[in-house]
Each structure stands twice: as structure tokens, then as C-alpha cells.
Amino acid sequence: MKDLGLLALDFPPGKGGIQTLTWEVYSRLSDRLRVAVAPACAGTDPAAAWPMRRTRQQSGQGLQTLGYLRAAAAEIARHRGAPLLLHCNHLFGGYAGSWLRWRHGMRYVLWTHGEELTKHRHQSGARAVLARAEAIFANSEFTADVVVRMLGRARPEVHVVPLGADAKYIATPPAAATGEGILTVARLSRRDRYKGVDVALQALALLAKQGCRPSYHIAGEGDDRAHLEQLAAQLGLSGQVRFMGAVPDERLIELYDQCGIFLLCSREQPSERGLGFEGFGIVYLEANARGKAVVGGRSGGVPSAVLDGITGLLVDPTSPASVAEALARLLGDANLRTRLGKQGRERTETRYNWDQSAAEVRAIHSRICERLW
Questions:
Q1: CA atoms within a 13 Å half-sphere pointing along the CA-CB vector of 68
Q2: What domains, with CATH codes, occur in the chain?
Q3: Are 160 and 140 in contact (CB under 8 A)?
Q4: Which helix (H) or strand (E) holds 339?
Q5: Omega into 13 within 30° of 0, i.e. cis?
Q6: Shortest CA distance to 8 belongs to which of 44, 51, 63?
Q7: What does the pLDDT look like over 210-245, one tens digit per residue?
């Protein structure tokens, strides 16, 4: 039965964790999709085979997003005559879902990812949108706890849905690493400094003082790159660190295979707009899927992505010394790197993959529909 609607704010060909999650989950639920609505896009639409509607409006900031939500709600409202449970892939999409519920009696579920909850300018409005949902999907235990604290006891069901590594990372055996280098994959954005690339560079400088100089590749682009390049130079790391810029998806597998350790020491960082943090971290799973040990910050939703001592090591992400200690431990113990990487890959094969994620969403969707209709 085609009883599922999708309202997406972030959707391919755009890049990012929400885009990846939405594509990977809902492409596996296409048999139940009656309608999917996404903003206007440039380039090839990957969902050409879906019942996809692209609005003329794009999603962005302020009034631009409001214009998109109005157009998306009007498109969804065309399907109000039959049972339809709307899935909103972002808190802001819930505003359209809430209006559709008030105006047409439609029901919706809502995805939560982390920062949008803590950096929302209008907390009362956010709480209302969350409270009116039939269920809330959270990407980690940390994000789920944020929702619970916002709403208290009177709240919808909150489901932690395990995210996944793309099948392409799992499909082929990992190639043998060509060295003991370190890799980070992250946006290099001023607003995302919580990702901790600055602390990673300071940790590398501490290792250099001990005579340990592993290569460090940073894949990602953003408006903070110049600042980080300057920091690397000030720390004497220019010959050791390579900023690679934006890397196409097909090249990422090669980078994961070439590195010895994956590093992303994200921290919880307050700002004038609210708390910044990693809601989960799909890149940890991608690295694990290629058999790599990972080092992550003990913060936000990262402990849901990285099992300390099992698939990687968790560190104090505010302490360069803590990061350096974990890196030194892994660099000096090939057996430990191999064991953590192997266990990480097994975890993505059996549990943390998109087939499992979609199966859980399908089951929750079916239970809600049975209750409603």
C-alpha cells in the first residue's frame, strides 16, 4: 500500500548526512511512497524513478525556506483524500507537517538530527512541532535525550534508528593500507568548528615533538579552510598535512583504504545560537566498513557511532593531549588497529547499514498506520 509521503528539506544531489540518510532509507521504501517533495535543484535528479515533485522554490535561509515549505505543503495536500503518513526529514519540515495536520487532519513523523534542536531560535515552536508528531526518529541516543528533555513526559514515541554505511563501502573487501597515515573527512566550516580539526592539528604537533610524524589528509571544503591551513603552518605541520578539498564519492573509498586511522574528534561547542555537536557521524561507519580503526570525540552522538575499545577509541575532544595519546597508541600497535577495524566492519555488515535502518523505519511506519487506520 502506498501510504507514505516524504517532505524533504535536504535531498540529493545536495551533499551531507541528512541527504544521505534520506536517500538511503527512502529509496528502500519506494514501494510505499505515494509522493515525495523536495526543493528545486540544479543538475541530475537522482530520484527520477520516484513519485518525486520538485518545487520551484529552493530551501535555504529564512523566507526562502518558508516559501519552499508553503509550496511543499500545497503539493502534499493534494493527497489528503486517502491514508497518508507524512515523513518530514528535518525539524523545519515539521512546520509544514503541523500545518497539514491542523488544516487537513494529516499525520506526520519527524526526523531529528541534533543541532537543529539546540540552535533553533524559537524553542516553543520547535517543541510544538515535535509534540504534534505521531513519532520522532532520532539518529543517536544523545539526540533522543535532547528531544526527551525538550518535551518532558507528554511526548510522542521517540525511536533511535541506527544509521548506516553505504553498501558500496561494505560490498568489497578493504584493500590493504598503503601506510599508517591519518584521515579526516569533514566540512571545514566556521559554524562547524565543533568537528575539531583544530584540536586534531594541535595533537599532530604534540606527536611531532615526540618524533612521530604521520601524514594527515583532510578531505573537505568550507569557509574555515584558510584558517586551518594557517594553523597547520603555525604548528610546523605544512609538510605533513594535506588539505584535499572536496573529494568525489568515488574517491573516498580509496582514501579510506589508504589510511591507517580515521580521526574526527568532534566536541560539544556552545555558540551564540546554541550548542553545536555531532549528532551521530556516518563517516565513522564508512571508515569502519573499510576496516579502519577510528578515533572520535566522546561528545554528542559520537558514542552511538563509535564503540570505545571495540570499533575505535573515544577521547576527550577538547584535549590535544588526549587525542595525541590515542593516535600514538594506534600508530604503535598494528594488531590493535587491525582488531578494531575488523570489529567495526563486522558491525556495519550486521547492524549499522542502510538495509537495517530502512527495515526499522518501515516497521515503525506500519505500526503507526495500523493504529491510525
A1: 23
A2: 4-162+354-372 (3.40.50.2000), 167-350 (3.40.50.2000)
A3: yes
A4: helix 334-350
A5: yes
A6: 51
A7: 999 999 999 999 999 999 999 999 999 989 999 999
